[in-house]
Amino acid sequence: MKIRILGCGTSSGVPRIGNDWGDCDPLEPRNRRTRASVLVSTETTRILVDTSPDFREQALAAGFSDLDAVIWTHDHADHCHGIDDLRQIMHARNGEPVRGLARPFTLEQLDLRFSYAFHGRALYRPTIAIEPLPDAITIGDIHIRVVDQPHGGITSAGLRFDANGKSIAYAIDFNEMTSNMRNLYQGLDLWVVDCLRREPHPTHAHLGEVLQWVSDLRPRRTLLSHMDNSMDYATLVATLPEGVAPGYDGMEVAL
């Protein structure tokens, strides 16, 4: 099983509009961050998590044109507003809609905003065949378990992927560690986790608490994601404990 970090930036990306790099060194290419999304795959199965506004460029960089499924963690713009680019994936599939999954509330919100993508309109066929995301499901040879994570006034879907005896979890956009999350994120080979900045934030995890969770949960390896422009790559590498590192756009980890 393999995961590719398509994007590891927060909602404004790095740099922010205005060429605002904050504390990030603009000469370090791993500081350039598009909006958060990952691709989890095996030799036979390819699953996209979220369609960020940068999805087209991310897909081109990763070199894929087909998917077995898309899972949306929640309906915030930085995680779903690249949804229209799935139309080209549908065309690459000879007109077969892309399979899409989301928790019921997220599904409802996506359907309100992008109904044409799910139901078609005039001469345009549906792009996505949407269905509710259950607590557990197997897609191809990847088994997926799901937990609802507190994210301000809503929840996001935390995801654990198991295949061929290996495990990857993707925990993005949350601000609290519940007992159900702790249970799901035990015994991981790789944990890709929300880590917006060093200072506390009302709806996202910050560095201090992430490091405490890593100490408690003991994943074999942890990658930080959804980072803002205060999180300089080289500074993090120099200060993070063994087994923890910042992710970067285009990073691939094979287990």
What is the total domain count? 1
Distance between the termini: 6 Å
Largest sheet: 7 strands, mixed
Which CATH architecture is right? 4-Layer Sandwich
Number of helices: 8
Global shape: globular
SSE succession: EEEHEHHEHHEEEEEHEHEHEE
Strand content: 25-35%
Rounded to the nearest angstrom, the radius of gyration is 17 Å
Mean pLDDT metric: 98
Give the structural class. alpha/beta
Q: So, the CATH homologous superfamily?
A: Ribonuclease Z/Hydroxyacylglutathione hydrolase-like
Helix proportion of residues, in percent? 10-25%
Based on the structure, what is the oligomeric state of the protein chains? Answer: single chain
Give the beta-strand count. Answer: 14
Q: Which stretches are poorly predicted, pLDDT < 50 over at least 5 residues?
A: none
What strand line-up does the widest sheet have? 6-5-4-3-2-1-14
Q: How would you describe what is shown here?
A:
By secondary structure, the protein is an alpha/beta fold. The protein has one domain (2-254): Ribonuclease Z/Hydroxyacylglutathione hydrolase-like (Metallo-beta-lactamase, Chain A), CATH 3.60.15.10. It contains eight helices and 14 strands. The strands form two sheets. It has a seven-stranded mixed β-sheet.
List the helices and strands and how they pair.
Elements: E1 2-7, E2 37-41, E3 46-49, H1 55-62, E4 69-72, H2 77-80, H3 86-92, E5 98-102, H4 104-113, H5 115-119, E6 128-132, E7 136-139, E8 142-151, E9 154-163, E10 166-171, H6 179-184, E11 190-194, H7 207-217, E12 222-225, H8 233-239, E13 244-246, E14 252-254
Parallel strand pairs: 3-4, 4-5, 5-6, 10-11, 11-12, 12-13
Antiparallel strand pairs: 1-2, 1-14, 2-3, 7-8, 8-9, 9-10
